Amino acid sequence: MPNTVPAPWGTTRMRPYADTPPVAALTAAIDPRTQVAVFHDQQGRTVEMGKHGTSTDTSAPTSTGGGDGDGQSGGQSQPTDLDSITANDQD
């Protein structure tokens, strides 16, 4: 009896990429006034590359506290270890 393993489900759905038309050559240059990349086509015309969203990184502190019997009264224990978790906000 041959020992065969079925192909993973995702690979059975794979197909070749569709053909795409060729992309015209562009030249990138930095605008000295704005310091932003500007793209030009083969005739020297400026090409709009579309708008890009912005994202922000924030850090939210987290803490761990002592467990039961840590000797503190009042129910809530003070943090004994701090770290931070990075959160990314995308538009």
UniProtKB/TrEMBL annotation:
Residues 42-91 are annotated as: Disordered. It comes from Kitasatospora acidiphila. Residues 53-63 have a biased composition (Low complexity). This is Putative ATP-grasp-modified RiPP. The gene is tgmA. Residues 64-74 have a biased composition (Gly residues). InterPro entries: Actino_peptide (IPR025843), GRASP_targ (IPR026496). It holds the Pfam family Actino_peptide.
